[in-house]
Amino acid sequence: MTSVYAQRRARLAAQLGEGGIAIIPTAPERGRNRDNSYLYRHDSYFYYLTGFSEPNACLVLKADGSSTLFCQPKDLEREIWDGYRLGPEAAVSTLGMDAAFSVDDIDTRLPRLLENQDKVWWPFATHEGLAARVEGWLQKVRARTRAGALCPAAQGDVCTLLDEMRLIKDAHELAIMRRAGQISARAHIRAMQRAARMLRAGEDCREYHLDAELLHEFRQGGAEGVAYDSIVAAGPNACVLHYRADKAPVRSGDLVLIDAGCELEGYASDITRTFPANGTFTGPQRALYELVLDSQKAAIAATRAGNRFNDPHDATVAVLAQGMLDLGLLDKSTYGNAQDVIAQRAYFQFYMHRTGHWLGMDVHDCGSYVEMSEVDAASTRTDALSGEVITRPSRILRPGMVTTIEPGIYVRPAPGVPEQFHHIGIRIEDDAVVTETGCELITRDVPVEADAIEALMRD
Predict the structure, then answer these.
(1) How far is CA 194 from CA 55, 112, 260, in A?
(2) Based on the domain organization, do 209 and 126 belong to the same domain?
């Protein structure tokens, strides 16, 4: 049976054009400090096509479908220190390659593969120093022109092809992402309940205690680790979008915002929940929480095949804008209605990010957010975040796309803002698979309704 990776290689090869050849390296190892490296993580494009997670490897794919892998050679001495290496000989049968060689030979063998090809594809912006290496290989081909070798005359960014492939998830990918969502949901539940238990016992609860619960459940569930640095933000820290300190006390009466997800078999999960540390929302906390939840429900309803990527964001903003007026965050005498709030971008004071992003192998996954068709004058719009004029229509959602849905509200003290809402930061995030009839939420094993959260934390 043809592996899912071989199928993907065949799909990419069919897009390279006659005489096309693609070079896709994996990620380099990165040093942390003296004699110590960061835990290795493969390049997502490379892994998507190979399922191979060793460092120091490179895939070469031709338009005729033939594949060549350069990888680490077998070395029993190094394997004592660093672990098992597959090696070129086993790579052919194990990974379904047509040929495999030691990566030590790449500078000799790869130029020969480039000979008499018309166009070379490689990732333009993802690998430091790769441009110089590609040029070096091409120079070796040019040096053989007197011997009859022809050098590729054109180059292309292979990411433009792979981004479109990765944007629509196949059944293999969705199965992994559902499992990742389940593991991450259990981790959030564990952290929520730990906070309530520690406070009930009168213990000194810190953000890092909850972070530890997340990591425990990720690893217990079989995940490689975190998909991104977890955010555990108590009290006013929740108003910092990418909070990282992770040391502050968690106090009774605080809201705690946790934005965390595991990486499982190379795929990310991304969940945010906001909950009362002691298990009970205050009146102002619940009012803002219900507003954010209502805005998420509006976004979920707008997430379906045929709608555009911006539709969930627009639905979120409409609900939040009206709620900001109703709760007194914005002055009704200044902004007559929600349309005024949106037109003047006044909601930006409390909601300054988009409602979603693509999700997959990377937590901010690849793929354009606009249609790459001809410029559509009727779709010209001003981007709500940057203020720039966008002349391409927002991306049409299609079945198999996976996006996050993550509205929020962040209230920093400011003149005219009711004091009861000061220092409250709330975000609610779920992962959604676009379907023909709507979307499948794959992270709802962790409660989202305020009453359900309070009930969970009483357990």
Answers:
(1) 38, 59, 16
(2) no
Q: What is the pLDDT of residues 257-306, one digit of tens each?
A: 999 999 999 999 999 999 999 999 999 999 999 999 999 999 999 999 99
- Tell me the two tokens of residue 457: 């934390």
Domain match, 188 and 322 both:
yes
**Residue 269, domain CATH:** 3.90.230.10
What local confidence, expressed as pLDDT, does residue 285 receive?
99
Catalytic residues: 35, 242, 259, 270, 353, 357, 364, 406, 410, 427, 429
| Helix or strand (DSSP H, E) at 156 | strand 154-157
Q: What is the pLDDT of residues 345-366, one digit of tens each?
A: 999 999 999 999 999 999 999 9
Query: What is the phi/psi pair of residue 415, to 5°?
Result: -55, 135
pTM, full prediction: 0.94
Q: Of 143, 165, 187, which residue sits at a domain end? A: 165
pLDDT in tens, 371-384: 977 555 555 666 66
Q: Is 417 in contact with 331 (CB distance < 8 Å)?
A: no
**Whether residues 199 and 149 fall in one domain:** no
113 and 134 assigned to the same domain: yes
- For residue 62, what are the domain limits? 4-165
* Mode of pairing for the β-strands spanning 267-268 and 262-264: antiparallel
